[in-house]
Amino acid sequence: MLLLLLFAAVMHAQTIIPVKICDLPLGLSETSGLVNTGPNNYLSHNDSGNEPKVIQFDSSGNITRQIKLINATNVDWEDLTKDNKGNIYIGDFGNNNNNRNDLKIYIIFDPKTFSKDSTNAGIINFTYPDQKAFPPVTAQQNFDMEAFFWFNDSLYLFSKNRSNPYSGYTKCYQLPAKAGSYTAKLIDSFFTGNGLYLNYSVTGAAINNAGNKIVLLGYDKCWIFTAFTGRNFFKGKVTMYLFNSLSQKEAVYFESDEKLVITQETSSLGNAMMFRINLPQSSTSGNRNFEKAQIEIEIFPNPVYETFQLKIKTMQPDKKSEVMLYNSSGLKVKSWSLLSDKIHVLDMHELPGGNYYLKVAGGNTKKIIKE
């Protein structure tokens, strides 16, 4: 019952527009984690296969410092967080194929406490209590990890679901925030949605300084959780906010209770950038009279041979909406600006056969099969 109530709550969504702060330097094109380390100072890192180092940069996108972890490797670094003493935790727990048994989190002291460009790291080794096969069958592949934060002397990790068929859950695990070898504790799960992987997977997480608000980040939306007690993050109120675009957003932190800073890495969906998002203040006041996401698309026929008919349904007739067509690799192959409540005939004849995904900005996504 609780799960159903939570999912019903997120169906009321408001579209918010990220505001660009800066382009990220070439050295951070695969940014995958983000924290601030002081006024106009940010810390990030690149993901799999890159050097084992964290990179400090400013709001103009200039690299100001790089710190290499002497005793670490970057198998797949996917997020970082910091504790109340400024210590940094780097999650080497990316697990796209769900087959890793060498998961680690590296720990370094607050970078402000030393000036060298290299340091040794403390190491947390861990496993998941519910993973018995490496990899498990595709329907159970929910052991990739791209999001975590520190809270009350523990680390909380949130899975990036890669199950097929897609089950729509992110799992929350708890680990001690100190070096050692552990079995993570599975404490809860949250149903993000039963749509497409691109729209409902979790790619980043953060908690505010007061410890009473968390965010889970996705490629085209985020979920804000409030009014919870202790570590029961999913037992409070949840609000889903839609972004006005789909891109490879990978990292997030709370600049303040009502401001998020987000980075995205370079991909076919856009270049590496840093954004700021202003959350409506009502998200903490308990006022939930948000605008309901009333943009939906209908297509016919499906599968498509050459052309198909599209109708955009909204509460605002004659409103223009951006409609985007993505291939199965997430590459945008077509886009249109179309009026709502009219039937449009759209052409796919030049595209190869396969699976495609049609998304309307601020609304839903439909799978299209091109024959």
Question: What's a concise summary of this model?
Answer:
This protein is mostly beta strands and 371 residues long.
Q: Which spans have pLDDT < 50 for at least 5 consecutive residues? A: 1-12, 282-293
Structural class: mainly beta
CATH architecture of the largest domain: 6 Propeller
Shape: globular
Spatially, the strands of the biggest sheet line up as 1-20-19-18-17
Number of DSSP E strands = 30
First-last Cα distance = 41 Å
Determine and state the CATH class of the largest domain: Mainly Beta
Mean pLDDT: 89
Q: What proportion of the residues form beta strands (DSSP E)?
A: over 45%
Number of domains: 2
Share of helical residues: under 10%
Kindly identify the CATH topology of the largest domain: Neuraminidase
Count of runs of 4 or more consecutive helical residues: 3
The biggest beta sheet is recorded as:
5 strands, mixed
Q: Compute the gyration radius: what is it?
A: 21 Å
Which labels suit this protein?
single chain; mainly beta; Neuraminidase; Immunoglobulin-like; 2 domains; 5-stranded mixed beta sheet; 3 helices; 30 strands; disordered N terminus
Kindly describe this structure.
- The structure is a single chain.
- The protein is mostly beta strands and 371 residues long.
- Helices cover 5% and strands 47% of the residues.
- It has helices at 2-10, 197-200, 282-285, and strands spanning 13-16, 19-23, 35-38, 41-44, 53-57, 63-69, 79-82, 88-92, 104-108, 118-119, 122-127, 144-151, 154-160, 169-176, 180-183, 185-191, 204-207, 213-217, 221-226, 237-243, 249-256, 259-264, 273-278, 296-300, 307-313, 320-327, 332-339, 343-347, 354-360, 365-370.
- It has a five-stranded mixed beta sheet, covered by helices on one side. Strands 3-4-5-6-10 form a five-stranded mixed beta sheet, with no helix packed on it.
- Mean pLDDT is 89; it is low at 1-12 and 282-293.
